[in-house]
Every structure is written in structure tokens, then in C-alpha cells.
Design brief:
The chain has about 300 residues and is of the alpha/beta class. It has one domain: Rossmann fold, CATH 3.40.50.1820. The protein has helices at about 15-25, 35-40, 105-115, 135-155, 165-180, 205-210, 215, 255-265, 290-305; strands at about 60-70, 70-80, 85-90, 115-120, 160-165, 185-195, 245-250, 270-275. It has an eight-stranded mixed beta sheet, with helices on both faces. Helix 4 packs across helix 5. The protein is globular, with a radius of gyration of 18 Å. The N and C termini lie far apart (about 40 Å).
Length: about 300
């Protein structure tokens, strides 16, 4: 008996395009030194990969502030005409770069397809604000939503999601909500895209990943101490969390993170789906290719079903 395929074989039709696009991508330098100038360049979304992560200037997004742990927190919001739920988005960027604007395009589609109001957080970034600043900010926004979603958006139904470091922070936020506030059950879905769930390094990270971001995020925490559940949610008690969709490509250096986290999510008694995309690298859902469109379509449909 042949084993069940890891992914939908129909996706093989897009492999030629994936390989051609991957061949054009710049190679990441695992030995990069993150000087202040290098960090500033990495934070310029208009310069990374030709601006693919920059905001598309989609109308309807607004900026507001709420109180945070160490001062005001900036939120980026989008409210469609018909609101079924609030989708809380946590952007990626290795804990040291990125901004809510980089997710505008996908968030606008989520608003349209799943009828969700969007709330995206501009959390504090390392190295200026190392751990636990980012998780603290994300927890604060989640608590604000729990208290204010009905008044602000007309619904108490909540979902959360994020990519890369944002998926780590989204999962960590859910664990904190359960442990500290007994309120993780208020979230009906977790959309977790190529996340980093073990900051100490899974096998795929050690083989092919740029690992220097860890030292920016955790300048005084080393070795197995980086497996602390609040840093690496793979090691947390994951019971009592909402249904999750894990999306990842087989050529992603965080591939193992999603495989392991999906298994542990299910083992803890939660619903979980694992969506694998052949030969796709980190960040592929933002690429202008058919494989990305297929992945995003599944995400939109899954969220629409969960918030419905």
C-alpha cells in the first residue's frame, strides 16, 4: 500500500513556474552581520525583493493607537461593509523587521472573502526591543480585542494569524491567553503560515536557515533556554487552542517547524490541518505565482468556513 501523498498531486502542475521563480531569488547570506545600517536596509520594504512585501496602497486601511505595555501601540485596521468576525494579523520579519503594511494585500482579501474586520499590530521590534517586548505587545492587542471587538466592530468572533515570526507570536499569544486569562477559546481559528515555532533550531533550520535573527531577538538567552515555551511555542502546553491551518513549502528552512507544530497541535486535542506546497521557499505566499494563489485560496476558504 502506497503512503498518502504529502500534498495534492494537482499542485505539481505549478512546479515549473515555482522552479523558475526560485532561480531568480537572491541567496540569503547566513553570515550576515546585522549592523544598524543593515537592519535599516532590511526594514525598507520597498527594497526587499523589488518591493514585493511593500504596501500596495489599498484604500480602506486606517491607523489608530491603543494603550500598550510601554506606550501607545499602532494598529492598522480595515473594516469591510459586512463584518462576520475580526481577524487579528501579526506580521512576520524575524522579530526585527516588517510592518503591518506588508500584509495589506492578503488582509484585504481576507476581509473580502471571509468578511472579517482586520486588526494588524505594529509590535516593537528587536534589537531595540528584544524579547519579551514583541509577545507582550501582541498579548496586549489580543486583550484589547477581547474587551472591545463588539463595540468597535460589531462582533465578538475572533480569529488570529501570522506568517514566519508572526506565526510564532500568534501561537504564543494564544498560549498566553489560555494560561493567563482563560480566554483562548474566544478565538475560533488560527491561520499559521510558515512559522518559526522552535527558536532554538529545528533540523531544517540548522540545515538551511539564516539563524542570525535569533541573536537579535534573544541577545541574552542561549542554547536550550531558547526552548522556553514562551519563546518557542513548540514546547508549550498546546491544549485548549482553536482549530489551526498550518501552511508551508517543502523547500522552506522552517519546514520542520510546521510539521512538528501541526503534530503537537493535534496531539493536544485540537483540530489542525497541514497544507504543504512542493518546492516552495519561505515567504512564497506573497509571490506572484500560481502556487501562492492556490495556497492563499485555501487559507481564505478555510478562514471563511471557520469564522462562519
Amino acid at each position: 500500500m502506497l503512503p498518502e501523498p504529502l500534498y495534492d498531486p494537482a499542485l505539481d502542475a505549478h512546479l515549473a513556474e515555482v522552479r523558475a521563480f526560485n532561480a531568480k531569488l537572491p541567496r540569503e547570506d547566513a553570515r550576515v552581520r546585522w549592523t544598524p545600517a543593515a537592519i535599516a536596509r532590511a526594514r525598507d520594504l520597498t527594497q526587499i525583493m523589488g518591493g514585493i512585501f511593500a504596501s500596495a496602497a489599498i484604500p480602506g486601511f486606517e491607523t489608530r493607537e491603543i494603550p500598550g505595555p510601554r506606550g501607545p501601540l499602532r494598529l492598522r485596521t480595515f473594516v469591510p461593509p459586512d463584518v462576520r468576525a475580526v481577524y487579528y494579523d501579526v506580521h512576520g520579519g524575524g522579530f526585527f523587521m516588517g510592518a503591518p503594511e506588508m500584509d495589506d494585500r492578503d488582509n484585504a482579501e481576507i476581509a473580502k472573502r471571509a468578511r472579517c474586520a482586520i486588526v494588524s499590530v505594529d509590535y516593537r521590534l528587536a534589537p531595540e526591543h528584544a524579547y519579551p517586548a514583541g509577545p507582550d505587545d501582541c498579548e496586549a492587542v489580543a486583550l484589547w480585542l477581547l474587551a472591545n471587538a463588539q463595540r468597535e466592530f460589531g462582533t465578538q468572533r475572533l480569529a488570529i494569524g501570522g506568517g514566519s515570526a508572526g506565526a510564532n507570536l500568534a501561537a504564543t499569544t494564544l498560549v498566553r491567553l489560555r494560561e493567563r486569562h482563560q480566554s483562548a477559546s474566544r478565538f475560533c481559528a488560527a491561520n499559521l503560515v510558515f512559522g518559526v515555532y522552535d527558536v532554538s533550531g529545528t533540523p531544517s533550520q540548522r540545515r538551511g536557515g539564516v539563524q542570525s535573527f535569533r541573536d537579535l531577538y534573544l541577545p541574552k538567552i542561549f542554547g536550550d533556554d531558547r526552548k522556553h515555551p514562551d519563546i518557542s511555542p513548540l514546547y508549550a502546553d498546546l491544549s485548549g487552542l482553536p482549530p489551526a491551518l498550518f501552511t508551508v513549502g517543502t523547500s522552506d528552512y522552517l519546514y520542520d517547524d510546521s510539521l512538528f507544530m501541526h503534530a503537537r497541535w493535534r496531539a493536544a486535542g485540537n483540530e489542525s490541518e497541514l497544507a504543504i506546497y512542493p518546492e516552495c521557499v519561505h515567504g512564497f505566499t506573497m509571490f506572484p505565482i500560481a502556487m501562492a494563489r492556490a495556497a492563499n485560496q485555501r487559507i481564505y476558504e478555510w478562514l471563511a468556513k471557520r469564522v462562519g
